[in-house]
Specification:
With 83 residues, the chain is an all-alpha fold. It has one domain. Helices cover 66% and strands 0% of the residues. The chain has 3 helices and no strands. The protein has helices at residues 4-15, 21-45, 51-68. Helix 2 (21-45) packs across helix 3. The chain is globular.
Length: 83
């Protein structure tokens, strides 16, 4: 039996138009990565949990990922999304 998050991901992925699936996968991984980095800053660096800071990091990171080669993120037009 797959983990509940894996089931959500698989069901959601199937609903995404085929041309946007790689971008969707990158976006899910980006969200997980952002939360993981924020969690580590809280646990290991003594930072206080900060929802606004985590959301801002999530908004800033796609550009960096795109520059690093995650070109499919640009196809999702995330700049239109307001958090």
């Amino acid at each position: 039996m797959a983990a509940p998050n894996a089931d959500w991901w698989r069901r959601s992925w199937k609903k995404v138009h085929k041309q946007h699936r790689k971008g969707f996968n990158s976006l899910v991984i980006l969200g997980s990565w952002t939360l993981w980095k924020h969690r580590n800053a809280c646990v290991f660096d003594g930072s206080a949990p900060n929802l606004h800071g985590a959301l801002q990091a999530f908004k800033d990171e796609p550009h960096l990922w795109h520059v690093a080669g995650a070109k499919e993120l640009a196809a999702l037009h995330l700049e239109r999304v307001v958090i």
